[in-house]
Design goal:
Chain A is an alpha/beta fold. Chain A is built from ten helices and nine strands. In chain A, the strands form two sheets. Chain A has a five-stranded mixed β-sheet, with helices on both faces. The model of chain A has no long low-confidence stretch (mean pLDDT 92). In chain B, helix 3 packs across helix 6. Classes of the chains: A alpha/beta, B alpha/beta.
């Protein structure tokens, strides 16, 4: 089954063609550059950019896959969670495309997309599918969710952030240190030349549940930077490394603990923060075996992950397939 | 040939099916903010009532505002998708042009009004000159007092005008303010269909991604619109009514 899939929940316009929920035939992602100046995503600006770019990117994705719309079996698009105005662009374009071409339309939960990014591959040889049950950590600028995947499309939420998302913490600290947006890649680069033990920072634990809290860490970094500024130039690399270590420790500790408690071998990660090398390494260290993770470009938002999830929606439908946008959709 | 017209510019939404000579079906409803949920079911009902399928549709017209940015993008994104999927040609038509066009035969100077949030309104002025019904102002966003300063003569107000707004306009303009009846001041996609049809007859297809909402710049009224009979805007999105003999 060949699916044309669309992702517009935030600031990446992504369109892909995916076969049988696994093989990437084409995967075009246009990152919006308009937000670099504002240091954050302006929802109205993002929605405008999606509308301008989406049809052309869809054309490119089909052309690169060497297929026409006639050669596709279904059209999928993200219907939530995400920025409402952005979701509406992709979902309505996709639904129009599907209706006009006589194809089924599949509304996809963005978080399921991040999970099923772990099923994707490029090229001709299929690697083995991840084993289920699995612990899944989805961490990005918008979400920090830890879930137990009991079966296909059966998710039990274990914990989530009670304040900032992990990616937001990266963005805010990057801004404090005068680094660019989005913060993740800039912090990671700076941290490579820094000492992660230079400054003690709090590892916020929310009782002994699996919830996360990052606003305390962010405030601690803010205080640290202020006091360092008073003493002279801020050692940016050391602060970045100490911050990254504190954040990664918390994410990796809870992920590994959840895997142990539920006696699960498979750990899957997704979302922009999952592209962080230190996080991948720390989780692998704590669970005691190598992590099988998608390459960074499949961890960040893209159309292919929506095509993968859509395939499993059709195979394990259970409930009715969503057609309309719900910006507060959860993984359950 | 059949044209599908889609309008989700404001809390009111409308869809129509048109064949160049007659409106085959039309639906206008108060969608509030549910355009994303209600547009496609409305399109399917419309096709059923008009005894057509999407395969018959080879032209699409979509309202481009000004209006609610999020609302407008629902129908525009849907129209782009439908056009891409069916090969139909697509025209974007200003929502204010649609509102005023219904009143062109009256030859009365007409002001189309739509809510722009808080105390502001989107507006444009229309008038027949040399037998041509044309928009005579840029698309404006302004408060009612600012807008009324530009109105020097008897003007028919159409659009989403509630009783309170009607009273404000009467207070500001006295007898110069004229009002269409409640039903005839509303927007109907049948008129959008007519304008879209004319547009596609006269203009080559633009790139689908170029059809987007009219994002009116904020205080446009002060910089570019200072007299009631300012020349028609040069971008010439003027309404090309067929010439009457
Ligand atoms: Zn995401």
């Amino acid at each position: 089954m060949r699916i044309l899939s669309i992702e517009t929940s935030c600031d990446e316009t992504g369109v892909a063609v995916v076969d049988d929920g696994r093989r990437i035939v084409s995967n075009i992602v246009a990152s919006q550059l308009a937000h670099q100046d504002t240091g954050g995503i302006v929802p109205e600006v993002a929605a405008r950019e999606h509308l301008r770019a989406l049809d052309a990117i869809t054309q490119t994705a089909l052309a690169e896959a060497g297929v026409e719309l006639r050669g596709v079996d279904a059209v999928a698009a993200t219907v939530g969670p995400g920025l409402l105005g952005c979701l509406l662009v992709g979902a309505n374009y996709g639904r129009g495309l599907a209706l006009a071409a006589g194809l089924p339309f599949v509304g996809v939960n963005h978080l399921e997309g991040h999970v099923y990014a772990n099923w994707l591959y490029e090229g001709t040889t299929a690697p083995p599918e991840p084993e289920i049950p699995a612990i899944v950590l989805v961490v990005s600028g918008a979400h920090s969710d830890l879930v137990l995947m009991e079966g296909h499309r059966r998710f039990r939420p274990l914990g989530r952030t009670i304040d900032d998302a992990a990616g937001e913490a990266f963005d805010k600290v990057a801004r404090l240190l005068g680094l660019g947006f989005p913060g993740g890649p800039f912090i990671e680069r700076a941290a490579q030349d820094g000492d992660p033990n230079a400054y003690p920072l709090p590892r916020a634990t929310v009782a002994d549940r699996y919830d996360f809290s990052f606003s305390g860490l962010k405030t601690a970094v803010q205080r640290l930077v202020r006091s360092l500024e008073a003493q002279g130039p801020v050692p940016v690399n050391d602060v970045a490394a100490s911050f990254q270590k504190a954040l990664v420790d918390v994410l990796a500790e809870k992920t590994a603990r959840a895997a142990a408690e539920h006696a699960v071998d498979t750990v899957l990660i997704g979302g922009g923060v999952a592209a962080n090398g230190a996080l991948r390494a720390e989780i692998a260290k704590r669970i005691g075996h190598p992590l099988v993770v998608p390459p960074p470009r499949l961890c960040t938002d893209n159309g292919a992950m929506i095509g993968a999830a859509a395939f499993f929606v059709l195979r394990h439908r259970g409930t009715e397939i969503p057609q309309t946008v719900r910006s507060d959709l959860k993984l359950a | 040939m059949t044209l599908l017209a889609l309008d989700t510019s404001t809390a009111w939404a409308s869809v129509a099916l048109y064949d160049g000579a007659a409106v085959l079906a039309e639906e206008t409803w108060h969608a509030q903010r549910r355009h994303g949920d209600e547009l496609f079911p409305a399109i399917e009902r419309l096709l059923a009532h008009g005894h057509h399928t999407l395969a018959d549709v080879d032209r699409i017209a979509v309202a481009t505002g000004p209006g609610s940015f999020t609302g407008l993008r629902v129908a525009i994104a849907a129209a782009q998708g439908l056009a891409r999927g069916s090969g139909a040609s697509l025209a974007g038509v200003s929502t204010l042009d649609v509102l005023a066009y219904a009143h062109a035969p009256g030859k009365q100077r007409t002001c189309a009004l739509l809510p722009a949030g808080r105390t502001e309104w989107y507006a444009a002025l229309y008038q027949e000159r040399n037998r041509k019904w044309l928009r005579r102002s840029p698309y404006i966003v302004a408060t009612l007092p600012d807008l009324c300063q530009q109105i020097g003569t008897h003007t028919l107000f159409v659009g989403e005008i509630d009783p309170e707004t009607e009273q404000t306009l009467r207070d500001l303009l006295g007898p110069k303010a004229l009002f269409a009846s409640p039903a005839s001041r509303m927007r109907r996609a049948g008129y959008l269909a007519e304008l879209g049809w004319l547009d596609l007859e006269s203009r080559p297809q633009t790139r689908l991604g170029e059809i987007e909402p009219i994002y009116v710049k904020q205080p446009a009224i002060r910089v570019s619109f200072d007299q009631p009979f300012a020349p028609a805007p040069t971008d010439e999105a003027a309404l090309g009514l067929p010439k009457r003999a």
